[in-house]
Amino acid sequence: MPQIVLKHRFGRDGFALDVAFDAPETGVTALFGPSGCGKTSVLAAVAGLLRPQEGRIAIGGDVVLDTARRIALAPERRRCAVVFQDARLFPHLSVETNLRYGLRRAPRSAEGPGFDEVVALLGIAHLLGRRPAGLSGGERQRVALGRALLARPRLLLMDEPLAALDAARRAEVLPFLARLRDVARLPILYVTHALDEVDALADHLVLMDRGRVLADGPVAALAARTDLPLAARRDAGVLLDCTVGEAPADALTRLDFPGGALLTILRPGPPGTRLRVRVRARDVAVAVSEPQGLSTRNVLRGTLTDIQPAGEGQEVFVRLAIGPSELLARITRDSVQRLQLHTGMVVWALVKAVTFDHRMGTAATGAAGSGAPDALPAA
Amino acid sequence: MNLGLSAEEWQAVRLSLDVAGRSVAVSLLPAIGVAWLLSRGRFPGRMLLDAVVHLPLVVPPVVVGWGLLMLFGIRGPIGGPLNDWFGIRLVFTTDGAALATAVMSFPLIVRAVRLGLDTVDTGLEAAARTLGAGPMDRFLTVTLPLMSPGILAGAVTAFAAGLGEFGAVITFVSNIPGETQTLPLAIYTATQTAGGEATAARLATISFSLAIAGLLLAELIARRMHRLLGRA
């Protein structure tokens, strides 16, 4: 399990970094926060490209940095491959030679997917003879993913790998990232400031702000909390791990989640496809009796478990238990008083079928820890 | 094909090419090392090294030649032991002409190599590190290929300039036909000789053509290299 403890101050009175967290043994740990919160510095320190003043970093039981014991392995000996935002492919080498660069230098004992397997996984077989200058941004990033994975790293570091791409290119690369995550049986640290990437890829979330860790834990657990900066976002809401249901009655898709089902206009894939859906709190309405004559397709019976203020305004978060799952609804204080909402009462949550706002389209794949590449929708 | 040149004139042309070629061969590796130190090194005395390397550009060539004579003369602090122990004599020899030319063109090569090195994205070297490449490995596989346009440009420029080195050469190794009389020295001699105008004109034309050819070649190679390196 990667363990990371870092303290670093840039300049005399500069920005101070003070973080400590553990990442799970496999799967994606997202370092999420606003620009300048220090998440990229954490990544650089893990890779060995930044030497922190204090810290201890262990990967797979091996200590690669321990300032107290004066241990600081050089980056080339850490076996932490990095996927940079700007790809950083070697311009004078062909795509194939780029891909083999890390592979040739990996220890013989290192295990990992083979060259042909990675090329097929990323769909880059037709690019092997080309030079990086002739590739599109999305193709470059796919090659960079392959090059990092083929270095047979113990830990894969990704520094905003989609941030330099336009929306279409992001949608092109994201499914490959999801595939790579499912194939690579190794921990991945993923730096991003895009919440949709967290939703689509991450299992574990480290929430950062101003050089500190605000919270860390499973993504869905943090998304459901109302005391974090995440809750102040327009797209605050819970994440539901869903499975596409068998043959829905109408043209809509049924997404089954523990305790209920949602009808949606999303087309994530055939029945059995697993995906994680963000249900934004501002898209959920609450009724105290079962409503009739509504266009809203999703009416879920549940129990009101909590009411929390949402920021300083006239709004609150209402937490609803739908079986073992939870929903958050963002409503006005006025509504709470008018309907005399209180914890323990039975309510109905209303969610429109057209509300699921998925900028990433079908790329929102892979439930936490599913590890099943065959469950991925076609890209 | 003799272009109307006499045997002596051809000898001067061949000698110039020989001297310039040897001077580049001798100074290329040290120039890469010095360029690396100046561009990437963080050590006290870097400014001083920078100044010393550039001295031949500002000091009169005759003074450089005189300095070489003092150091590498038969009784000089370096020339003495070289002569006594190894039987290597630089004064009045072709080797000495190459050394004088190398010293004079050294700053040219260093500048070009350094420019080439500065265009190398250090992010690529960092990427190579994270992929497991040690210092020498990533220098040879990433930095050196990417800075090679600068190295080639420096070599060609120094070669072209070396064909015409005059002051340092004539001061250090004198003007001996067949041994140290390179093109510019032969031209100079011709202008000092009664009836030598035609020889001077022919040699000057050749000198001019070689210089132009060198510059064109440097440009051609640079473009070719940039395309090879994927910078289009």
TrEMBL record, chain A:
Residue span(s) of domain Mop: 293-360
Q: Does the keyword DNA-binding apply?
A: no
> By its UniProt entry, which SUPFAM superfamilies does this protein fall under?
MOP-like, P-loop containing nucleoside triphosphate hydrolases
Keyword Protein biosynthesis found: no
**InterPro entries per the record?**
AAA+_ATPase, ABC_transporter-like_ATP-bd, ABC_transporter-like_CS, Mo/tungstate-bd_C_term_dom, ModC_ABC_ATP-bd, Molybdenum_import_ModC, Mop_domain, P-loop_NTPase
One function term, GO molecular function aspect = ATP binding
Going by the UniProt record, its keywords in alphabetical order are: ATP-binding, Cell inner membrane, Cell membrane, Membrane, Molybdenum, Nucleotide-binding, Translocase, Transport
Domain ABC transporter positions: 1-235
Q: Which domain of life is it from?
A: Bacteria
UniProt name for this protein:
Molybdenum ABC transporter ATP-binding protein
Q: Which organism is it from?
A: Neoroseomonas terrae
From TrEMBL, chain B:
Query: The ABC transmembrane type-1 domain covers which part of the protein?
Result: 13-221
* InterPro entries assigned: MetI-like, MetI-like_sf, ModB_ABC
Q: Which residues cross the membrane?
A: 20-39, 51-74, 86-110, 139-163, 203-222
Would you say which domain of life the source belongs to? Bacteria
Q: Which Pfam families match?
A: BPD_transp_1
Q: Where in the cell is it found?
A: Cell inner membrane; Cell membrane
Topology versus the membrane: Multi-pass membrane protein
Keywords of this protein's UniProt record, alphabetized? Cell inner membrane, Cell membrane, Membrane, Molybdenum, Transmembrane, Transmembrane helix, Transport
Q: SUPFAM superfamilies recorded for this chain?
A: MetI-like
PANTHER family found in the cross-reference section: MOLYBDENUM TRANSPORT SYSTEM PERMEASE PROTEIN MODB
NCBIfam families, per database record: modB_ABC, PRK09421.1
By sequence similarity, the record places it as follows: Belongs to the binding-protein-dependent transport system permease family. CysTW subfamily.
What role does it play? Part of the binding-protein-dependent transport system for molybdenum; probably responsible for the translocation of the substrate across the membrane.
UniProt name for this protein: Molybdenum transport system permease
Q: Which organism is it from?
A: Neoroseomonas terrae
